[in-house]
Amino acid sequence: MSDTSKKGLVTALELGPVALFFLGYLLLRERTFTVAGQEYSGFILMTALFVPILVVSMALIRKITGALSKMQVVTLVLVVVFGGLTVWLNDERFFKMKPTLIYLIFGVILGFGLLRGQSYLRAVMGGVLPLDDAGWMILTRRFCAFFFGLAALNELVWRTMSTDAWVNFKTFGLTGAIFVFFLLQSRLFRDHGTGDAD
Asked: Distance between CA atoms of 75 and 190, rounded to whole angstroms?
């Protein structure tokens, strides 16, 4: 398999579970299911399906690439824990809190590195983004602030809006925010790029 094919397959495996969750939720959101005498909403049912789908997806990514990134491992653990709590306690709030914790953890880790004068982001993305030392520190500060902002935004949305609004925000809003964030870094990439990515 070529490198391009591998990258395409990995991207599909990363985005596939989220897309399946969104489509499944749209189909089942108005329905209630009774399992062992307990009623579950379509959201809870899709959460129960999402967790094993993501586990299989990550296992396939590991088989293809040989390893999972630290971000992927943290995300997987939190999905399993909070997805499991959501289903076990039949309470969708736990799954909605998951992005908040993921972004807080990433923000704290990057912030800790900055306090030590280091860019932990470079250790994760150094082979993808060829930047000089100053560029990595600037990008790390921006990412740190961005992650804290996403955590706060997720809390605001799930606590004040409907489940439909949160699912749309999680599927499209967060993805769009990350895309726009990277677009806004184009000047940084131009001014601090070194041109020696792997």
From this structure: 30
pLDDT by residue, tens only, the chain of 198 residues:
677 778 888 889 998 999 999 999 999 988 999 888 889 999 999 999 999 999 999 999 999 988 888 888 888 999 999 999 999 999 999 999 999 999 999 999 999 999 999 999 888 876 677 889 999 999 999 999 999 999 999 999 999 999 999 999 999 999 899 999 999 999 999 998 876 544
* Residue keyed to tokens 């969104």: 22
Residue 65 makes CB contacts below 8 A (sequence gap 6+) with 6, 10
Name the residue among 127, 111, 135 with its Cα closest to residue 191. 135
Q: Residues 98, 150: contact at Cβ < 8 Å?
A: no
Instruction: Specify burial of residue 153 (Cβ count, 10 A radius: 0-12, 13-18, 19+).
Output: middle
Q: Which of 59, 111, 106, 110 is nearest to 80 (CA)?
A: 59
